[in-house]
Amino acid sequence: MLQTMRSSAKVVMWVLLASFVGGFLLVETSGLLGRSAVTPTTAVASVNGADILYTDWQRRSQQMVQQQQQQQSQSGRSLTQDEISRIDNQAFDEMVAELLLQQEYERRGITVSDDELRDYARFAPPQWVRSAPDLQTEGVFDPAKYQRLLASSQARQSGLLVSLEQYFRGEVPKQKLFEQVTSGMFVPDAELWRSWQDATDSASVSFVVFRPSITAADTAVSEGELRKYYEAHRSEFDRPAHASLSVLYIPRIVSAADSAAVRSRITALRAEIAGGAKFEDVAKRESADSASGADGGSLGKSTRGRLVPAFEQVAYGLKAGELSQPVLTQFGYHLIKLDARAGDTLTLRHILLRIEPSDSSAARVDRSADQLARIAASSEQPAKFDEAARTLKLTPFRVSVVEGEPAQHDGKYIPSVSAWAFAGASAGESSDLFDAEDGYYIARLDTLSGGGKTFDAVRSAVRERVGLDRAVERAVPDAQALAQAARRSSLEAAAAAKGMTVTKTGMTTRGGAAQQFGSLGEAVGAAFALPASTLSAPIRQRDGVFVMRVDARKPADRAAFDTQKTDLRGRRVQQLRQQRLQMFLEDLRKSAKVTDNRKDINAQLRRQAVT
């Protein structure tokens, strides 16, 4: 059954997606499920009392999913649930941001007149218009061609004028708001000089660092001490939700015979082309890369570094018009034809045949996956997962996942289970059966811990931090003893007596010093504040204690600064404008009252799918 479904998946994927949404609306609005109805007016979120409709969010998300799927169609795989979840989150965040901006326009009285729209459309066309090939002259946007287009009936009939109006009605208020938020910024010379010094001052430093290990005694801290530390450092302990899952995996196994069969097939295709068949016709008929195959295998123009190494190595060894031998990459076997070459720019075509399990081995795997799904998929009974493992003689493995990040096990990506775990699943519940390129997965959610800044959610992290602080504090006396010994002899002699190593940075900037010290902290500041040949007292920072000597200093060049000051100021003002704008948008989101109903809706949909 799964084998048949998979062979037709590309044809029905979007039909199923549309059917799901349509069926969901039909059943929910009919009230047949006996639960509170989810209707076309159901809000997926509320932003300061204004609703974002669930159907609007789904529509945008599905459009973005479809666009992404089309972009990666060359790889021949569908999006994983993790990737779809990221797109869902992106669509949601964009809609919240747009609504917040609209509310801010209204609060500030920002409007756009028709005259403004006409001026922007005439004299400030967006990049997607400026890059249109028909509006270029010798590769450069031609304003005269654009003006002729605006005055023609084609602009109205093609929908260009409507598109420009929609674009500028969204962009012009945003530009006005951003100008208000970032206006009046100026950077004085003194601040520019400090930035220049930070970037160009250099020093050579020798240092010894004490990085103690945390012991059990360090982390033996009372509940009261932990809470006190947490309250003093609350802002540092924002944590996402995390979960632990058990996963069952049925791999798809490609045998040597499967690989040999595909190589034999692509060798036969090469012989067919060498015998006179047109490469383009064979590509359209045979290539598993549907995007390029429909265009006769065309990959367009490519430069070095844009293709996978094995493919690129062969492609750059071809002559114009030459056909390659079969080339093996992680995608399968390729035939490559070089149409033209101009320097390092190649115009290429290819035919791809994927290496897949034979029908008999795939059928065996699919039967096992069917049985796994029948026993445990979407079950709310934890024992069903264990039953499936026993029945199919599968050994579950455990993974810990963080919300917003994909699951991994032994360095291998585990698709879709992380996104599922944080989309409304309950502890003990099993996932759907996930069909991935390398096999089938099903997961059971064992534990789920909410994120945020609550003490309970981050207690273990607080304990670890307190333990590290105590461990570093224990190292201070040893660092003091080394510093005293170094003053009597040298840093090298004192370090050798304790069996420690002196690290030398060579001439480096603050950024380079931070990399060699392992962090940007008090030690970096001391390295550029101490006079040359000066030995420091112990310098404690969060991850260790440093004793250092500044061997040489080279101050920033004031004359070079003066010649570049104007450009530096322009770049710094632009940087500050971007920072202020980012802070404004973050504050706008933080101060808003946003009610997110996604997990509740997803959980309800899952419960309804099971009943």
Task: Briefly characterize the structure.
It is built from 24 helices and 19 strands. It is an alpha+beta fold and about 600 residues long.
What are the key terms here?
single chain, 611 residues, alpha+beta, Chitinase A, domain 3, four-stranded antiparallel beta sheet
Tally of individual helices: 24
What order do the strands of the largest sheet run in, or round the barrel if closed?
16-5-18-17
Instruction: Briefly note the structural class of the backbone.
Output: alpha+beta
Shape: globular
What would your notes on this structure say?
The two termini are 23 Å apart. With 611 residues, the protein is of the alpha+beta class. Among the domains are: 114-182, no CATH class; 202-239 and 455-554, no CATH class; 242-253 and 359-449, Chitinase A, domain 3 (Roll); 256-353, Roll (Chitinase A, domain 3). The model is unreliable at 1-35 (pLDDT under 50). A hairpin with a 2-residue loop joins strand 3 and strand 4. The chain is built from 24 helices and 19 strands. It is globular and about 85 Å long. 53% of the residues lie in helices and 17% in strands.
